[in-house]
């Protein structure tokens, strides 16, 4: 029997604030949270640890995607990027998956169609009895095409770089704004130009441009939409 628990998808580019929004929304509604980017990040790290270079055979990396043990738990470390802990087997990789190298590995493994196919059911398995908020790039287009509410959250690349800059500086971490800007531009290009599940809004997604909005304003708009669509 198919699972009829409600799903809300939040897709968008890096730094759009979708991670924060998805996590707050899941808490507010009592839904499970799926941080799908973390799955690709753990897989990238696992491939690296197994000595699989980025150019390795796609099927070998897809086989790893099928067997790798990925876990989520309570926050375990103090970091601006970490809302909960992420595990590779018995290893807490919450910080290791957020490095620049791990981001690059994640985006490389994410471009392999067989890897995306291998992770598809794993992502769908996050939907339990409560309902799910799914954060990623292709949640509304591919993984949960029947979601009750699909949001595509975006913002100008300048606004996204500026937010990340302030977040880092606020935590006492050195950051260079032009470098953050060009990193974001590179990631946008990789995520939107790949052939397998590129980043794009689902046809039935509500597009929210948060360039001139605060997190609270975005939350208010999405909460209203969720109430309307979920009838609660
Ligand atoms: O959201 P994030 O920055 O943690 O994502 C890490 C990488 O994984 C990024 O390059 C985009 C990719 N990704 C993806 O291809 N599909 C998803 N559903 C989520 C992330």
Automatic annotation (TrEMBL):
Residues 8-227 form the Cytidylate kinase domain. Pfam families: Cytidylate_kin (PF02224). The lineage of its organism: Bacteria, Pseudomonadati, Pseudomonadota, Gammaproteobacteria, OMG group. One of its GO terms (molecular function) is ATP binding. GO terms for biological process: nucleobase-containing small molecule interconversion; pyrimidine nucleotide metabolic process. It is an enzyme of class 2 (transferase). PANTHER family: CYTIDYLATE KINASE, CYTIDYLATE KINASE/PANTOATE-BETA-ALANINE LIGASE. Its EC number is 2.7.4.25. It catalyses: dCMP + ATP = dCDP + ADP; CMP + ATP = CDP + ADP. Signal peptide: none annotated. It comes from OM182 bacterium BACL3 MAG-120507-bin80. InterPro entries: Cytidylate_kin, Cytidylate_kinase_dom, P-loop_NTPase. Belongs to the cytidylate kinase family. Type 1 subfamily. ATP binds at residues 12-20. It is found in: Cytoplasm. GO terms for cellular component: cytosol. Keywords: ATP-binding, Cytoplasm, Kinase, Nucleotide-binding, Transferase. This is Cytidylate kinase. The gene is cmk.
